[in-house]
Amino acid sequence: MKNSKLFVVLSVLLALGMLLAACGPAATTPAGDTGSSAGSAGGSVAVDTQAASSGKTTIKVMSFFAYDTPEVETAVVAAFEKKYPDIKVDFESVAFSDIFLKYKTLIAGNTPPDVMSMNFDQAYSFASLGALEPLDSWIKSTNLDTSIYFPATLDMFKVDGVQYSMPGTFSDVVLFYNKDLFDAAGLQYPNKNWTAQDLKTAALTLTKDTNGDGKIDQFGYEYPWYPIVLEQYNAKIWDPTTNKCTLNSDAGIKALQAIVDSRYGSEQYAPTPDDLNQQGDWDMFMAGKLAMMPTGPWAVGTFNQKITTFTYDIADMPAGEKLATHVYANSYAMAAGSKNKEAAWKFIEFATGPEGTKIRQDGKYEISPVKSVADGFVAGLAGGNPEHASVFMDVMSYAVAQPVHAHWTEMSDAIDSELNLALSNQKPVKDALDAACVAVDSILAQP
Amino acid sequence: MEITQDLTVVAKKESSLSSIKIREAIWGFLFITPNFIVVLIFTIFPVIFSFYMSLTNWNILSNPTFVGLANYQQMLGDSVAKETFLNTLYYTIISVPINVLLTMVLAAMLNQKMRGLAFYRTAYYLPVITASVAVSLMFMWVLSTNGLANQLLGIIGLQPVKWLTDAKIALNSVISVTIWKSLGMNMIIFLAALQDVPNELVEAAAIDGANRVQQFIHITVPLISPVIFFVTITGIIGSFQSFDLVYNMTKGGPGHATTVIGYYIWQQAFNYMHMGYGSALAYIVFIAILVLTISQWLLRKRWVYTEE
Asked: Residue B103: which of B121, B129, B89, B118 has the closest Cα?
């Protein structure tokens, strides 16, 4: 009994000790005691105290930009700190999949980062929920020349005409194709005038069962993300004037039926989701098993590194009923609750301006939204693959932004869960879209 | 044990009984304090706060607005919520009985004296201590289109099955993995119970002419019925809370085929920022579990053999 009592007391002490240890660092480090804490946390705290003593302003910046190659965005930060020695940036790189939940919890806890990276649809959500600082007065007071940007990229980050964040990168979807497969089949390369029929004819020629086992080993084409296809067929997910779902309109059904037919029709030329489960589309393309696929400039780095057995090029996206593709952009926004707005704006101005975006573009993270810098992107690819890199710029004349809504995540999930059944041939397209529209309508009806 | 008694005797001589009790109580409370504080902060407070949240509209980014019972009303018209409740019910009805039966039989078999006993016991327990992400990944490979399961089917000349991508099959696949993963936990509990079954009762039955199956059904099962009861209740509660395997393996798809209520709550609260609606759903689950547990507790008198 005595022994076991001692044991219990000891274990209680141990448990208390662990609790205190766990609470300890968080509570004590602001006072400057960084001697015991290791790693980056300790490092940044040490710098903070130093900054405080020398009268510097410290801003917190969180970003998913170039998460896989973190040296790119830290170079932007370093260049900024060099230009503004009185501002210290506490920079944190976070994965895209985690960052928005992180913002939300930090905002809910009243400790938002001063500057937050955004993508197009999240920028819209955050702005419409009142979490972002309107930037128009900042742009005016610092006489920022907004004409240096591609207008489309600026417009993407406006909500009801108000600029809520500044574009830092952009990218768009074009058609990547395997030149060698086209040469071998004696086909002409894809061009801007291609119709849906031209695409299908070429794709069918390029679809082959090379080893004769009854299964297709080489596919002609894979359709892009469905909202792009909707755009090509003049279909919309919802009509903003009536605030009702229009996904199950004739145009919508036609667009999605085109995807289903390419996978399960009598004339198959696209891989099914099961095929893609076994080998992803990028891997298929790089292995020469997929002749054409839509993707963006973010693929160039990987493709140039890994494709050695053939040459590839890019072209305009094949039309449905009209030419259409998506432009994507990422931005830096200022939190409405930021306590260092002056310094935060300086950072945004720099990181989305010519200097910041050039570092990012040179680091192969998408294209600069600043026109003069973006020209250098095409020049940088001259002499290598893809030969016609200027297509990335050309499609900007007709590229549109993806659909966006304050409840986009919810809407997108609701559509996906029905659409995936249709696109894997488990449900007729019309039934799936009817069901999706019920869900979309109830989401649109939310305040 | 003897020492304990000696000490108590000594203690009785030294002071009155009540002061010992008080002292023991103080020590007792002292001992549970660290744990209790943690429970208070991370369990009891959230439980109360989430009830308040369930009466509000809150998207985390702006201040909550009080909406009364609107979230509960919304549930009535939410067809996805209904589907997920039905999925959860199906999940429970299939997985719990199979799990209880399988683990009981397994424990009875592993209670025999046989070769390699320790190996089998360890082998069945291993999935329990394996991280569920690892289990999910492994089964995603096993159950993928050209995975191990389909290759085995191919050997005996059967068509491949879309284990995780066919809306009619996916939930059953997830249930099977759940059962496989949790087999060892209940097995250990049953083993402990089986070792408490007095041998003389079983022997007496054998002398009376009962065969092995009769001994098991009429002697062993009634004697371990409190444990069956416990395992069933915890199993039902666990299956109402299931989340990780669904999240890792299917993300609730295809369609809503594998969306169980735990996953749907997470989706609503943290993906779509409907903290209020998510909390309301959680409270409905809480009530459902409560009702199920109470009704089992009442039914227990009919079939649970021994309890003081």
From this structure: B121
Sequence ranges of the domains in chain B:
73-303
């980050």: which residue's tokens? A157
Using the Cα atoms of residue A185, residue A186, residue A191 and residue A194 in order, give the sign of their dihedral: negative
Q: How many Å apart are CA A118 and CA A112, to the nearest integer?
A: 14
Query: What is the CATH number assigned to the segment(s) B73-303?
Result: 1.10.3720.10
Q: Which residues of A lie closer than 8 Å to B, measured between beta carbons?
A: 1-2, 8, 12, 15-16, 19, 101, 104-105, 107-108, 126, 129-131, 273-274, 277-278, 407, 409-410, 413-414, 416-418, 420-421, 424, 426-427, 438-439, 442, 447
Backbone angles phi, psi at A95, to 5 degrees: -65, 145
- Which ipTM was obtained for this model? 0.74
Please report residues of B whose CB lies closer than 8 A to that of A130: 61-62
Which of B77, B256, B272 comes nearest A410 by C-beta? B272
The verdict on a CB contact (< 8 Å) between B60 and A420 is no
| Pairwise CA distance, residues A166 & A344, whole Å | 12
- Domains detected in chain A: 54-170+329-379 (3.40.190.10), 174-327+397-444 (3.40.190.10)
- The pLDDT tens digits along chain A (447 residues) read 445 555 555 554 555 444 444 443 333 333 333 333 333 333 344 444 444 445 789 999 999 998 888 888 999 999 999 999 999 999 999 999 889 989 988 988 889 999 999 999 899 989 988 899 999 999 999 999 999 998 888 989 999 899 999 999 999 999 999 999 999 999 999 988 898 889 999 999 999 888 888 788 899 999 999 999 999 999 999 998 899 999 999 999 999 999 999 999 989 999 998 888 888 889 999 999 999 999 998 888 888 888 889 999 999 998 888 899 999 999 999 999 999 999 999 999 999 999 999 999 888 788 999 988 988 888 888 778 888 888 988 888 888 888 888 888 889 999 998 999 999 999 999 999 999 999 999 899 887
